[in-house]
């Protein structure tokens, strides 16, 4: 169970009905998980801003870079034009390029795209090479199609699934986590692929007795969605606030950590929000990021692969520290 289900409330703002990125109307999430033999523990996660043809109905978007030790394919065009024109896919480092190619296949085949000659796939990654034979590059065309085509709204599978199948956070099994917050009339949703380290802190309490050796390096991908009418510039500001939520969990921001945030707004006919009106959204993004990361830990299961076992964080010990 999530910590919230055990009475541990992170932050002060109300959540959406599923406490997930899919609480933003229109947003869908799908996973393809690959567990094969003794060494393959990986996958791909797809986030769809809406169910239509994204190239024909682009959404405002922005990318913020906390530390650029990573491969975020397509980020420069997003920031140049302020638009996202494909689903957002997350996967393993050496698979990012194959996943981007498969995403192109998907987009080119959509009705209405027959004459399209340029598409900007948006693909992020973290390195799952400790639990997964990353050089095998096991995520291919079929897995990408499965993740996209299975994407749905409602509750989101978390932990050791999709792009989080082989990831590690704070030395424990990490993975996919999600959360949402209400910001006045609008919704903020966050999904993370956690694979980083530092001094684990939950709700302001340092979990020093739950420190795992070798948990200092790694990366994180953060995706932020909102139904607020935010401009690309203000989405850039919104994405930057997720790093404050990341910091609340005790992240070390090490040299080898690729820390990225992608923000987008779903279609909205309202006039763009003013700069002053963004502050409640900033607070919501910080809280949702913090809780999404904690959810990625508490929802993960112990995984063995590639000659290593990484345990799930012991929830009973976490609760004991948070409820002395």
Summary tags:
single chain, four-stranded mixed beta sheet, 324 residues, L-amino peptidase D-ALA esterase/amidase, alpha+beta, 6 helices
**What strand order characterises the main sheet?**
4-3-14-13-10-9
Instruction: Please identify the oligomeric state.
Output: single chain
CATH architecture descriptor name:
4-Layer Sandwich
CATH class: Alpha Beta
Strand content: 25-35%
Morphology: globular
Question: Can you tell me about this structure?
Answer:
The protein contains six helices and 16 strands. It is of the alpha+beta class and 324 residues long. It has a single domain, classed as L-amino peptidase D-ALA esterase/amidase (4-Layer Sandwich), CATH 3.60.70.12. The strands form five sheets. Strands 4-3-14-13-10-9 form a six-stranded mixed β-sheet, sandwiched between helices. A four-stranded mixed β-sheet has the order 1-2-5-6. Strand 1 and strand 2 form a beta hairpin. Helix 2 (96-108) crosses helix 3 (141-149) and helix 4 (232-248) packs across helix 5. The relative contact order is 0.21.
